[in-house]
Amino acid sequence: MKKLYSVFKQGIIYENPLLMLMIGLCSAIAVTTNVSNGIGMGLAMTFVLLFSEIIISLFRKVIPSAVRIPVFIIVIAAFTTMVDLVMKAYFPDLSKSMGVFIPLIVVNCIIMGRVEAFASKQKLAAVIADSLGMGLGYTWVLIGIAAVRELLGNGTFAGLQVMPDSFQPILFFILPPGGFFVFGLFISFNIWLKKRMEVTARARELAARKEAA
Amino acid sequence: MKKEMTKLGITLALFASLACASLAVVYSFTKDRIERQNEIQLNASLKELFPEATVFEPVEGLASSDPGVKFEAAYAIRTDSAPLGMAVKAKGQSYGGDAVLLIGVDLRRSIVGVRVMELKDTPGLGANATNPGYFVDKAKKLTFPGQFAGKYLTDPFEVKKDVIAITASTITSRSLTNIIKKTGDAIVAYMDQMAVVAPAAGETTDNVAADSQNQAGGK
Amino acid sequence: MDLVKIFLLALLVNNVVVMRFLALCSYVGMTSDVGQSVGMGFAVTFVTVLATAATWPIYHFVLVPLNLTFLQILIFILVIASLVQLVEFYLKKNVPGLYSAMGIYLPLITTNCAILAITFENISFKYTFIQSISYSVGGSLGYLLAMVLLAGIRDRIRTSPVPKFLEGTPILFIATALIGIAFMGFSGLIK
């Protein structure tokens, strides 16, 4: 259980797919002009990641390694199409505002990367923990970026007016360059966070060793 | 070697056909709803424009004077007893590609409301035409399409004069205004030709100011 | 819409990288020197145009008549993946010069989202075949342009003092934001 938790935890900060591994960036910046998009994209992505990893993990022993990449692509594409169809049918507005980025989940390197590096070698339980951790790591960053951009760029949060009327939205944040800018600051913040956590972990280790001695 | 290849081929084919089969299942479940989605959206918007209407009757024979603006559907709108106006779904060029608008005109030859059904544009700029939280007039809480409600088609419809533009998106504002104006004109021409008139014709001049304010505030 | 307009729209106004955020993985990963970014840029351009020429007919002459449009994602990605393989084999055998310049980038291209996005948009924007080609050439040259710009800037950054908290990747995104602001100026180019 403890092992599963540590697998789950990896994706959130230490190996955060967006901020540390720098993969799957496109959708992360593109759709984050408002929070609802961020949540929608995060859930869609987590869904595809979870089910692709589960399928690959279940069948890992019967997939010959020579054709594993095409098989991965087929599996991922199938789940992406399902998400696309379901969103078109039940969340047409969300689907329209994210446009081509839903089908693009299929080439999102996070999924391919996790399937190849993790799911094709691990047991089911670990795979579920990994995909949920990675999915959550992806989603929180998306919501974070979207919150900053929507709040400053439009004065709203998930479509609700929160800034006072006198607030003049800073257009820059909602425009494409603002996306890059906010994302850059997020990376910088995450690097700082990771360093700090490492420092405190080391200090704790030292203290423990001292106590033992 | 050959045996190995067949095995690979079979595995691939198996996965591919499984994927296709499962997609076909999902597709058959969602298909109807996806196809009806536009219709659902259109009906909801029509109802918003004419809340008291009960009959939306498709009509033919509306012609666009501008080759860049195409009419996809037109509706004559009535209550059970009296006509209320008309609505047209029009498609025209905007900044990032085609824009689809739904424009409603009432019997006084004024615009009841405009709905942007489809628009591809830059988020934060032209795309604000579809953003319900973006106001071209903050004091009155008027959105870009909202400002047309209550406007008479005899008005000039000039961006930056009687039409407020979206910040830094003059081209989008102009193209959308053009579609609205051309469509509105065509509807008025059709109404005149078909002699669709309001029950009490005297209203047209007196209630102008009051009406346009009412309608603008509501949308 | 005429072809030149589509081309310019894709190349500058809606640049795939700095305005549309596509293909960022390779944008960050492959721009540490100018030569490399040019190689990658041309490889992408080549494959994008080929992919458009292949997927457009497949969609309109196979998927639509057979009512199989829901397989679009699956088919397109498989077509692009096999196309990349074929190009790689062909170049290796017949044009070794070009292969040594471009070959190492080819395997990375399959997961380049710019290519897939352009082929999808050709369909969803309802472009004709010729318009699609124009869109794909413009879009992928836009990618090349953005790659070369960032590679040049990275050269300068290496010898410049950068605020400590922005060192490494963050500064690349801040620089891209600035390139993006410059590109916003192109938006008045098209009426």
Note the gap between the termini of chain C: 11 Å
- Count up the domains of chain C: 1
Instruction: Note the total helix count of chain C.
Output: 9
Q: What is the spatial order of strands in the main beta sheet of chain A?
A: 1-2
Overall pLDDT level of chain C: 88
- Taken in chain order, the helices and strands of chain C follow as HHHHHHHHH
What would you call the shape of chain A? Answer: flat
What report would you give on this structure?
The complex is a heterotrimer of chains A (213), B (219) and C (191). By secondary structure, chain A is mainly α. Chain A has helices spanning 2-10, 25-30, 35-58, 68-90, 92-98, 109-119, 124-154, 176-212; strands spanning 156-157, 160-161. Chain A has one domain (2-212). In chain A, strands 1-2 form a two-stranded antiparallel sheet. Chain B is α+β, with helices and mostly antiparallel strands and 219 residues long. Chain B has one domain. Chain B is 40% helix and 20% strand. Chain B has a five-stranded antiparallel β-sheet with strand order 1-2-3-4-5, sandwiched between helices. In chain B, a hairpin with a 4-residue loop joins β2 (69-78) and β3 (83-93). With 191 residues, chain C is an all-alpha fold. Chain C has one domain. Helix content of chain C is 73%, strand content 0%. Chain C has helices spanning 3-13, 24-29, 34-63, 72-94, 96-102, 106-109, 113-124, 129-158, 169-184. In chain C, α7 runs antiparallel to α8 (129-158). Chain C starts with a helix and ends in a 7-residue tail after the last helix. The relative contact order of chain C is 0.20.
